[in-house]
Amino acid sequence: MLKVIPKVSYAITEYKKTETEITFISARGKLRVKPQSDKIIRVTYTEREELADHIGPGIEKDIDYTSWTIAEEPNYFLVQTSALNIHVIKQTGRIRYFSKKGNLLLQESEMESHQLMEFESTRTVVDKNTKVQEIETPDGVKQVIKSATTEFDKKLYRTRLGLEFQVSEKLYGLGQAEEGVLNLRGTTQYLHQANLKIAIPMLVSTAGYGLLVATGSPAIFNDTAYGSYFYTHADIEMDYYFIAGFNIDAIIKGYRMLTGKAVMLPRWAFGFIQSQEAYETQEEILAIAKGYRDRGIGLDCVVMDWRSWEGEGWGQKTVDKNRFPDLKYMTDSLREDNVHFMISMWPNMHPTTENYKEFAEAGLLLPANNNYDALNPKARELYFKQTNEGLFSQGVDSFWCDSSEPFCPEWTTGSFKCEPSYNFYKFFDIAKKCLPAELTNSYALFHAQAIYEGQREVTNEKRVLNLTRSTYIGGQKYGVVVWSGDTCATWKTFANQIVAGLNLCATGLPYWTLDIGAFFIRYGEKWFWKGKYNSGLEDLGYKELFVRWFQYAVFLPMFRSHGTDVRREMWLFDTEKDHRFYDALIAANQLRYTLIPYIYSLAAEVYFNDYTIMRLLAFDFPEDVIACSVKDEFMFGDILVCPVIEPMYYEADSKIIKNATKIKEVYLPKGSHWYDFYSNEKFEGGRHIKVDVDLNAIPLFVREGAIIPSTVPAENTNAAANSKIFAHIYGKKKSYFHLYQDKGDGYSYENGDYTITKLMWDGKTATMDKELTNLEFIIH
Q1: Dist. CA 583–CA 573, nearest whole Å
Q2: What pairs with residue 134 in β-bridges?
Q3: In the prediction, which pLDDT does 134 show?
Q4: pLDDT over 80 (residue 447)
Q5: Most buried of 40, 125, 405, 573, CB within 10 angstroms?
């Protein structure tokens, strides 16, 4: 008969208390509970002799908070703050979190909620046995270690935190995924970085809490028949933060207290950004800007995608002088027309480039790899030194940090994408050969740190704007805007992108965008090149999809068009016989610019009050069960945005949709009255309505009590900021709004160089606390 191995007990035998923490001790390990505030609790667990003295990547600091007590009850220890009662079960070490009113918020699983599995982590030794393969990828030539000598690095744990969710609660966040799943209950989520995936180990719940797992490694969230747990693949110890909040805004405020405030972006970042794969010359970029100015179309930035360098010098941070003979002249000329310039940059450099050689000579590349070592402060300094010498000093305004994961093995496969679990382990296997195993998911955070700290060292007169394909916990403090990666042009992709952005923003990162109209338009051999429109702009079906995508993007934090296969300049959607699509794009562009005073004020709320601009409905209507499940609507401040996510005029290949109804069913959340943005018609909330949907407009509704400052259509955000403001007031509900104004760039706002005007409405009279001669109230 087999003999059982007795389980080493989790039962707590004693505890040790200091002013700032309690450590519960069992035969199996040590469990530390350390309040960070009255609503935030840090929990760490190890089965070694001592807990580690470290904090996870992106966490600002370990906070010493002393306003708490501990008491012993018959079956549990009671840790109390002014907001929480925390039960630590004596027999198992299980933790249960309650509000002061006694409402259960979250509990760990009943048995074995803290599981660790130790393993020996290794590091690569670069020697004569190292074999490196150069692989052509969509992100340039990547060096991949095929075999190498390894040596012991440190002992790490696989960790599994067992959880027990309430039946009715919904979970959101974990960064960005592509499958279109809004509520993450009942799913498995593989959290590793990839093109189309941004892994952030942060959940928010409608039950009134968030869960931030302080790991830098790939992780798996599971809530299926196989269990409910959060698994991390390589960590020094189990480490997580419980964040209580009466709504998602309060939870995100706690997240940013731990990981850093979101900084202000330059005002121009909220205007229209024209990008393309790829503009090729200085002359072409100036012509694009002139094309917008000549037509009076709003534009604030033109973007240079890859191959700005000479020849095959991928990742070199200088431009090809034959195609860009005077970069400083070009950027100055653009700026005279209030057009800014963004350029793409890469962490990987071709071995023939001068930038690569400088890194190699300094020993600041990743082991046997052509990516620079962003985890090394000296490498970060050198990266921005090169950036400044070749680009920033020449008037480049901002940077597009592409391929910032920087490993993406599934994009080297063939006609179909491998299974999620395979991609998860493949990513880790490749990344751990170059990075510490416990930090393989966090490279993009350190890469963003290089840009932010480097630019701020050079000047405080220009705000950092870093458009990047990946980020991690705390990326918001480095001026990061993430975009969703290289999508393909289908209506399903479009619908799924809405969900992707909502979950990303629910994670605590406020600035997200995408490629309007998708990156890939045509249908190709590779699994990722699966657009449905081989005729490009000749296909009326694609033009309709592009218009709907464009209208939706008006209500994203960043309004940006980009892609391959076809050109995207707005006038290319116009023909002599058919102006419908062009007219719709112009109307959407003008709408964005009229809302600049509102959008920029919301951006200030992000900085000052940890606000989130793009909001899944659970932010504002957590008690509305229907609203919490709606995937194709969201709040943009106080505006309910209802994108049209199916064709009504044409299918692919310009096939006319016969007898199609131009109607969208919209859900208006309960708890408010709503005003049609265009007609001002008033509707009661808590019901579905059918809305006529013309190609020229996206359905929009304004919440009662909203004050929406707007202006006239403008050609750029600077003009919009200096035009007359119309403050639209909806309904008789008392309300106020903080109108924010500053220089639009630079960091003097950190020292109080700004103006906030409080616009007030008491149901009868509109007033403001400062006199603005260029502001007019309009009552709806």
Answers
A1: 9
A2: 143
A3: 86
A4: yes
A5: 405
Token representation of residue 488: 């393909």
Residue from 300, 402, 539, 715 carrying the catalytic annotation: 402
Does residue 82 contact residue 266 with C-beta atoms inside 8 Å?
no
Tokens found for residue 665: 């069913």
CA dihedral 153, 423, 176, 476 (to 10 degrees): 20
CA atoms of 219 and 189, how far apart (whole Å): 8
Q: What is d(CA 517, CA 491) in angstroms, rounded to the nearest whole number?
A: 10
Residue 767 Cα distances to 515, 709, 735, 774, angstroms: 41, 13, 11, 14
Supply 746's token pair: 């630079």
In whole angstroms, give the CA distance from residue 585 to residue 581. 6
146-151-157-158 Cα dihedral, nearest 10 degrees = 20
Structure tokens that stand for 333 in this block: 């000329």
Q: What is the pLDDT of residue 265?
A: 98
DSSP string of 410-473, one letter each residue = GGGS-SSPPPHHHHHHHHHHHHTTTS-GGGTT-HHHHHHHHHHHHHHHH-SSS---EEES---T
Rounded to 5°, the CA angle 49-10-189 comes to: 90
Separation in Å, CA 316 to CA 37, 82, 377: 46, 54, 20
Residue 417 CB-density burial (10 A; 0-12 exposed, 13-18 middle, 19+ buried): middle
Alpha-carbon span 705 to 218, nearest angstrom? 44
Q: How many other CB atoms are there within 10 angstroms of residue 381's CB atom?
A: 15
- The mean pLDDT value of the chain amounts to 97
Q: How many CB atoms lie within 10 A of CB 16?
A: 11
Helix axes 377-390, 443-458, angle to 10 degrees: 50
d(CA 309, CA 253) in angstroms, rounded, equals 42
Give which of 504, 737, 499, 517 is closest to 634, Cα–Cα: 499
Taking residues 725-732, what's their average pLDDT?
97
695 DSSP assignment: T
- The position carrying tokens 């400062």 is 770
If 0-12 CB within 10 Å is exposed, 13-18 middle and 19+ buried, where does residue 131 land? exposed
As a whole number of Å, the end-to-end CA separation of the chain is 82
Q: Select from 271, 272, 264 the least CA-distant residue to 605.
A: 264
278 preceded by a cis bond (ω within 30 of 0): yes
**What is the residue type of 577?**
K
To the nearest 10°, report the CA torsion of 33, 36, 41, 44: -40
Angle, vertex CA 399, rays to CA 394 and CA 405, nearest 5: 145
Cα(442)–Cα(449) distance, integer angstroms:
11
Cis before 557? omega within 30? no
Q: Which two tokens stand for residue 416?
A: 């179909």
DSSP secondary structure letter of residue 193: -
405 is catalytic: yes
Q: Which of the 8 DSSP states describes residue 746?
A: S
Q: 486 catalytic, yes or no? A: yes
Catalytic residue among 21, 235, 373, 405: 405
R_g of the chain, CA atoms, integer Å: 26
Of 179, 326, 200, 172, the closest CA to residue 258 belongs to 200
Q: Which of 512, 713, 487, 497 is nearest to 594 (CA)?
A: 713
| Bridge partner list, 164 | 107
What pLDDT, on the 0 to 100 scale, is given for residue 135? 84
Give residue-wise pLDDT tens across range 193-216. Answer: 999 999 999 999 999 999 999 999
Place of tokens 């106020």: 736
Beta bridge partners of 210: 204, 243
| 671-696 pLDDT per residue, tens | 999 999 999 999 999 999 999 999 99
Q: Which one is catalytic: 239, 438, 486, 704?
A: 486
